[in-house]
Amino acid sequence: MFLRSHRRVKNGKEHRYYSLEESRRLQSGRVVQRRVLYLGEINAGQPAAWRKTLEVFDEQQHSYTTLSLFPEDRAVPAGAEDGRQVKLSERKLRRARP
Question: What's the pTM?
């Protein structure tokens, strides 16, 4: 699985959309990608639209923590509580639900 970035320019503004995808090899030998999860837009021009708040499970403490995740190339806004920068290229999905 990997994180795919989709870039689109609309009315002179750049929009970036992210999705989680997996590669599958078909019986014919051809490799295709399938979208597993659509994450949405991450755009610095609209902080309320791209700020994603997630509940993260801490396996050591057995509790949930709420975090706001931001891409590594953007600064965490001043109003973001528990904001974390994420290196999207190093993310991988483990124990995914069907």
Answer: 0.41
